[in-house]
Write a structure and sequence with these properties.
Layout lengths: L5 E7 L3 H14 L5 E7 L6 H6 L4 E5 L6 H11 L4 E5 L3 E2 L4 H9 L5 E7 L16 H11 L7 E4 L6 E5 H7 L12 H11 L3 E9 L1 E2 L15 H12 L3 H5 L5 H4 L9 E5 L5 H9 L4 E6 L13 E4 L13 E7 L8 H5 L2 E12 L5 H11 L2 E9 L2 E8 L7 H10 L5 H13 L4 H11 L3 H14 L6 H11 L4 H13 L3 H8 L9 H28 L4 H14 L4 H11 L3 H14 L6 H11 L4 H13 L3 H10 L5 H11 L1
Parallel strand pairs: 1-2, 1-4, 2-3, 6-9, 11-12, 11-14, 12-13, 14-15
Antiparallel strand pairs: 4-8, 5-10, 6-8, 7-9, 15-17, 16-17
């Protein structure tokens, strides 16, 4: 492996201190003679050019103007002499074994075209949640992590270009980066797609960690700034499909699959796009037999060995045998729940249907409850994440004839199936019976009231009939105010409703027992949630007061990205508790921009503008972003409304009009 030379191509535009740290780390942690270092400078003005010229081990390319990222990379590739090309951001720190591990993965098979590393700050699920405070901690972590292990490689549909190792033969076959994406962004989406269309695979190497800084301002980074929707539209025009549609991973699906990693099962995804979610499932369940149905032929390269993808709509399921699949996945949109009956025909008796519902959909829970009941299904569990909710549905197995039979089963301690209770809740929801009357009947017709009321509360919760949960438990508390089972059930449900303070109040009625693991675990979970609920406010106040700014912003963005908090929660904290509202909103928006978290940028800037439309930074940043996404008319409207004389504003107006 060491006989192959790698040409490391780094672009610079100012930020000399970052460049020095990056190149020093390459010199320290890369075997001499295995690489050449090519630095392409895009007309820096901070001394970078002079420093680059003074280095004996750098092949310099010094541009007299800022040519952008794709063009600069291509310049470096053109002069390279290595068998491999490594595109590397200058705001990174490479680590022990980094290049050896990447090279091992790249040459593990002839059909591997490119590989990438994991890091602490990156989109595309290439970042891991790790807190590293200084250089020593970075290196110590990397020494533990960077041990070559093929079990830690996973195939991907897309790799981010901050650290991308590519075989030269691949570049010779598919060509250079497409310069239509100048000054940068989506060129790595485009290149990933082209590599796969040429028949090669992409690997993400979890056994290779490098550090990534991030965080600069829009204006300072405008030469390399992401063009967001503008370049997204260029990609769409080139390939006739949205880049996000091809390669976005629904990470929550793997958690909804209740299987061991070595389990064998058949799974079908309706509307699988390019197959990114199916590939993620394959990476986690190697023995799974995967199928996809996709209506957009352009999204599929034909080289997806991880799954059999069929072009068509949901009617294609008729090609499969009855009861063929253990899992079926589809996304709820435009009332497509009427396809459930069709999908159920190819679902085996113990199979599950997983429905993805966006978080902004209203009244979907009641709609799902009614629809699945009619189609002989029931909700097994739900998972909530940053994208919305996942509903995992089971086949129903038994029916109950009347309420008297239910009372008798409860009284005799017989097993009560979930669908038995569901039929009663459906009657309550439709107004056929009254909830309070039903509770009264339960208390009158059964002996073990506490147990039965708790059982019904749990069934109501599991079937998403939230309005019925607390009444059952409140009635149980009337019989025994300090009953441990009732209090723990109530606390668990309040915990799941995110009513952590109230849950803690009820739990405090119970004495601590050092041998009661359930009680200890619940108390710890509630205390943790109470802390994490306060954490966003704590972080935002630190941002306002410039206390450990980088770390505070990074953690806040992690909370947003993971779905632990949402935009509205952040805005509410800023409105209620922060004095420098516009400044903080702008800082968060800028940081989101630099971390490619595009969905968060405009909401924060628009909020800042609604608070104060005279704030120059807000007007500039908002207009700049609107310009980048092609909304020049709206951007000019904001700029021309700004009444103060300002050179930056005037310059941006000129740039847009040109």
């Amino acid at each position: 492996m060491n006989s192959l030379k790698t040409s490391i191509v780094i672009l610079t535009y100012n930020k000399l201190e970052y460049t020095k740290v990056c190149i020093d780390s390459i010199r320290k942690f890369t075997e001499p003679g295995t690489y050449e270092l090519i630095v392409v400078d895009n007309n820096s003005t901070d001394g970078s050019v002079e420093w680059i010229k003074a280095q004996n081990d750098i092949i310099p390319i010094l541009n007299s103007e800022n040519l952008g990222f794709p063009k600069g990379c291509n310049q470096g590739i053109e002069v390279s002499t290595g068998e491999n090309i490594l595109l590397l951001n200058n705001d990174t720190i490479v680590t022990p074994n980094w290049l050896e591990n990447l090279s091992t993965a790249l040459y593990s098979s002839s059909n591997i075209g490119a590989v990438g590393a994991i890091t602490n700050s990156c989109a595309n699920y290439q970042a891991i949640n790790v807190a590293l405070n200084d250089f020593n901690e970075i290196i110590e972590f990397a020494l533990r992590n960077n041990i070559s292990n093929e079990k830690l490689w996973e195939e991907r549909l897309r790799l981010i270009g901050f650290c991308l190792l590519i075989k030269k033969e691949v570049i010779n076959k598919i060509g250079f980066l497409d310069e239509i994406f100048t000054p940068g962004n989506f060129e790595d989406d485009d290149y990933s797609f082209r590599i796969r269309k040429a028949g090669y695979k992409l690997l993400l190497c979890n056994d290779t960690f490098i550090y990534h800084f991030g965080h600069t301002s829009f204006k300072e980074n405008s030469g390399f700034g992401s063009l967001l929707t503008k370049n997204r539209l260029k990609f769409e025009h080139k390939w006739e499909l949205d880049p996000y549609y091809i390669a976005n991973i629904d990470i929550g699906i793997k958690y909804a699959i209740g299987e061991e990693r070595d389990s064998k099962f058949r799974l079908l995804e309706i509307g699988c796009s390019g197959g990114a979610t199916l590939l993620n499932i394959k990476n986690n369940f190697q023995n799974a037999e995967l199928y996809g149905i996709e209506k957009c032929e352009n999204a599929v390269t034909g080289n997806e060995a991880f799954a059999k993808i069929i072009i068509g709509n949901e009617n294609v399921v008729n090609r499969f045998e009855e009861r063929y699949f253990d899992y079926i996945i589809f996304k709820y949109e435009h009332h497509n729940l009427n396809t459930l009956k069709k999908l159920k025909s190819v679902l085996n008796d113990t199979g599950k249907i997983i429905i993805r519902a966006d978080k902004d959909l209203d009244n979907i829970e009641k709609l799902i409850n009614l629809t699945i009941y009619e189609n002989g299904l029931e909700i097994d569990k739900t998972i909530e994440d940053g994208l919305g909710k996942l509903y995992v549905l089971n086949n129903k197995k038994h029916d109950i004839k009347n309420y008297e039979e239910l009372y008798l089963k409860l009284e005799n301690g017989e097993e009560i199936y979930n669908e038995n209770i569901l039929s009663v809740f459906k009657d309550i929801m439709s107004g056929k019976i009254n909830l309070n009357d039903f509770i009264k009947e339960i208390c009158q017709n059964t002996t073990n009231k506490l147990y039965n009321l708790n059982l019904l509360a749990i069934c109501a919760y599991n079937n998403r009939f939230y309005d019925y949960v607390i009444p059952f438990l409140e009635k149980a508390l009337e019989f025994d105010f300090y009953n441990k089972d009732t209090l723990i059930n109530l606390c668990n449900i309040l915990y799941n409703f995110e009513e952590y303070t109230l849950a803690q109040d009820y739990l405090n009625r119970l004495k601590d027992d050092e041998y009661d693991e359930e009680l200890i675990s619940l108390r710890q979970s509630i205390n943790h949630k109470l802390y994490t609920k306060k954490e966003p406010k704590f972080l935002i106040r630190r941002i306002e007061n410039n206390i450990e700014l980088e770390e505070s912003i990074e953690r806040l963005l992690q909370l947003l990205s993971s779905g632990e908090i949402d935009i509205q929660s952040v805005v509410e904290i800023i409105e209620k508790d922060i004095i420098k509202k516009e400044e903080v909103l702008n800082i968060i928006a800028i940081s989101a921009y630099q971390n490619n978290l595009y969905d968060y940028i405009l909401p924060f800037l628009e909020k800042a503008y609604s608070i104060n439309d005279k704030n120059k930074d807000t007007v500039y940043n908002l207009s700049y972003i609107l310009h980048l996404v092609g909304e020049d008319e709206i951007a000019l409207r904001y700029l021309e409304k700004y009444s103060e004389e300002d050179n930056d504003i005037k310059e941006l107006i000129r740039d847009i009009k040109e």
